[in-house]
Design a protein that fits this description.
GO terms for molecular function: histone deacetylase activity; hydrolase activity; metal ion binding. Belongs to the histone deacetylase family. By secondary structure, the protein is of the alpha/beta class. It is 33% helix and 14% strand. It is built from 10 helices and 10 strands. A hairpin with a 2-residue loop joins strand 2 and strand 3. The site of 7-[(3-aminopropyl)amino]-1,1,1-trifluoroheptane-2,2-diol has 17 residues, from loops.
């Protein structure tokens, strides 16, 4: 399996994040991608190739243009305003408020375009975001070109980014961009299987009213886990999308047996949908040692996930999402991929 990777992710470093009552160094850090890349090499998964640059047209197929055009302006506006530290939202237009924002107030604009304080910027963040998007499209082209599978080693991740909002370390929804690109390249149906511990609220929001992209999420129950405000089992899609959004919320402490039961049901529903291609939002924060998550999967379980996905017999694009047990992130993420290849 080929991996697409860019060193430009490393410029997104040192960003701070707001967790319960404290501002701390971000968990979504460069070493995550470096441990995964090292494991791709040590496991001899296959060639690691660089990105092909794209314009932002494919991003604007699923994100609002004003949102995308805002992203590269954040850091210059933040510094021009004389603000220090990470560019971070701290006020949001919630229910009953208005969304018109004075254009020169970057702090207000950050809140307008985000759902939490978790998508923060430093000087190199935009270059990293753009590289992650290019990585996803470059890997998608490998699958379109005939490869059975490919691995987009994306950083920053994307599945919390909606049509016009960022959050949870996500800015451009790499998996959603790839899914739409496959459709624009002639696919009739695409399934997105999101196995990250956190619900892919952005991905769901983007495709909720559509029947040409099936969105399946296995995740921590939003009644008790971030991102909270989307991801319940009764969210099945709307309009043309009715029945094409499937959520499998699970409780704290979920281990392999229960998690696999959700995966099995999800794969059955995916097979019934008969997509032309599968995009896997590959997060491995379901791991028992993940510092911010509450599931109990073990390293030996990840190859089983890959094997099950391979049994679908469909072209598959893996897009990296989350995972914060940095020492084991490579073992677990690449474990899915070697499992897929049944090595
Ligand atoms: N106490 C809970 C704090 C939650 N803080 C934000 C967690 C973000 C998770 C991001 C992710 O893992 O879903 C992604 F795949 F997008 F990277
Ligand atoms: Zn996650």
């Amino acid at each position: 399996m080929k991996t697409v990777y860019s060193p430009l992710h490393a410029g997104h470093a040192g960003q701070m994040e707001l967790v319960t009552a404290a501002i701390v160094p971000g968990f979504e850090k460069p070493s995550r991608a470096e441990f995964i890349r090292a494991r791709v090499e040590s496991e001899k998964l296959g060639p690691i190739i660089g990105l092909v640059e794209h314009d932002l047209a494919a991003a604007k197929r699923i994100h609002k243009a004003d949102y995308i055009d805002f992203l590269p302006t954040v850091w210059p506006q933040w510094t021009a305003a004389g603000f220090e530290g990470s560019a971070m939202a701290f006020t949001w237009p919630t229910r009953g408020l208005r969304g018109d924002v004075p254009p020169q107030r970057i702090d207000a604009l950050l809140g307008y375009y985000s759902f939490d304080a978790g998508a923060t910027f430093v000087e190199g963040t935009w270059a990293a975001i753009k590289s992650s998007y290019d990585v996803s499209l470059t890997a998608a082209a490998l699958v379109k070109g005939g490869e059975t599978s490919a691995f987009a080693l994306c950083r920053p991740p994307g599945h919390h980014a909606g049509a016009a909002f960022m959050g949870g370390y996500c800015f451009i929804n790499n998996a959603a961009v790839a899914a739409q690109w496959f459709l624009d390249q002639g696919a009739s149906r695409v399934s997105i299987l999101d196995v990250d511990y956190h619900h892919g609220n952005g991905t769901q929001e983007i495709f909720y009213g559509r029947g040409d992209v099936q969105v399946i999420n296995l995740h921590g129950d939003p009644m008790i886990e971030y991102p909270f405000f989307l991801g319940h089992a009764d969210e099945r899609g709307a309009g043309d999308g009715e029945g094409f959004n499937l959520n499998y919320p699970m409780p704290f402490g979920t281990g392999w047996e229960a998690w696999n039961a959700s995966l099995e049901d999800a794969c059955t529903k995916l097979a019934a949908y008969a997509p032309d291609v599968v995009v896997v939002s590959l997060g491995v924060d379901t791991f028992e040692k993940d510092p911010i998550s509450q599931f109990k999967l073990k390293s030996q379980d990840y190859p089983k996930i890959g094997r099950r996905i391979a049994r679908l017999g469909l072209p598959t694009l893996f897009v990296m999402e989350g995972g914060y047990a940095v020492e084991e992130i490579g073992i677990n993420a690449v474990g899915v991929l070697t499992g897929f290849e049944d090595r």
